[in-house]
Amino acid sequence: MSSIFNMKIDNFTGKSICFHSLEVYNNKKFIERKLNELDDFNKLDLLNIEPSKGNIKINQIREIHEFLRYKPNFSKIKIVIINEIDKLNDQAENSLLKILEEPPSFAIIITHTNSWNYLLPTTKSRLTRFDIPFPKDDFNLFSDIKKKKIKLFNLFSSMGLEYVDYFNNMEENDLEAFINTMDEINFEKALKNIKIFKEDTKTKIIFIYSYFHIIKKIITEKNHEYLIKTIDVTKELKNNIENPLDYLKMISLLSNIFIHDSLISKLTNKWKFMYNYDFIEFFGVEDYNFKTEIIMDTYKYNNKIINSSLSNHNFRLEIINHFVRLNEAYSKL
Question: 119 in a domain, yes or no?
């Protein structure tokens, strides 16, 4: 562990490297830390490539080729960062192979991924991979915040470093205000919140809590009012969010977290394997029956969406399918 945290990026000139962990945020934070450790590096000699609408496209690879045609202007090295390299489309990935294999002697190509197995073998063979561990101290500090009664606390701690860092870095007054904001969320506010799908952590936390608030309403109420309202609001979101597939992946992940924990709490006594102990109180999971065949089929279906790399889903149909499945899988005792 100490070796990777002590590594010097500028020792890899003329090479292509890939940082890997289970979380994109963790990868980006590590790379940012390594860049800040460089002596006399000017950010004008940095090219940062981000996926656009879920993919890295051929024109972005052409930009890399053009950027690396010339030596650095302000630093000793040039650096190209390819974020989420697993998001390369086929044409872009094939175009990138040559430059990955032989970057200029003055350049470093830094990539990262949380889905190493999505890469072609020919791409993997050209990258030196480094696995980044999660910093345990950050998680230990986060555990001290639990006394503040953050809604669905254990869920955020299990979802990764991004959420841990967010709460760790909050001032006391801001934390109290945030907890109050969460407490004030009702169904109507939750519907507005799940229409907003952005990258900033605060918005994502509110989105996650609001999603579960809505699911709770859908499966606890005997009429279909909450189900219909939710579908009507969310099925029209496709044109208002940058990457509809990311939206579907997020709600599929959250659905599977709930399914996973409800199965464990209902069928076993191994609660230590739950993502989120707070579900017991929040949902009153013990008060539900569920249809095993539907719930297991839903879990598998969600996994297909989570692992999908192509944006070929019918968004409106998937939204309807998502909420109807959960409504049919659970029923109040």
Answer: yes
